[in-house]
Amino acid sequence: QVQLVESGGGLVQAGGSLRLSCVASGRTSSVYRMAWFRQAPGKEREFLTSIQWNIGTTSYADSVKGRFTISRDNVKKTMYLQMNSLKPEDTAVYYCAARWSGASSYAYWGQGTQVTVSS
Predict the structure, then answer these.
(1) pLDDT, averaged in runs of 10, over the chain (119 residues)
(2) 20: which of 10, 64, 68, 81 fits an S-S bond (Cβ 3.0–4.6 Å)?
(3) CA dist list (Å): 110 to 5, 88, 90
(4) d(CA 21, CA 84)
(5) What pLDDT, on a 0 to 100 scale, did the predictor assign at position 30?
């Protein structure tokens, strides 16, 4: 089992920045890839970005490419999401997730952290 806890959400004005954190605990040695998702009211959960835990390769959704940056600290077992140039449409609950090697989906999820961007 892997436990994930997000933090860093809040209220920010459009054009501002926030950095989210996701601390992993439990069987973290088995984690292959971690990701950030978000879900806005009335919308489906949306993939944002992911990172391969050991070697750090990343991927991004077009909606956040160039504005959001994913990173991780293996020693602290923490993943980050640096969000710049925030827009009101970025308002959502942001979740981190983890999956093991060979898994087809993300099995472990945090509780989410609210990000609200005011215009």
Answers:
(1) 96 98 92 96 96 95 96 96 97 96 90 97
(2) 81
(3) 5, 23, 19
(4) 15
(5) 87
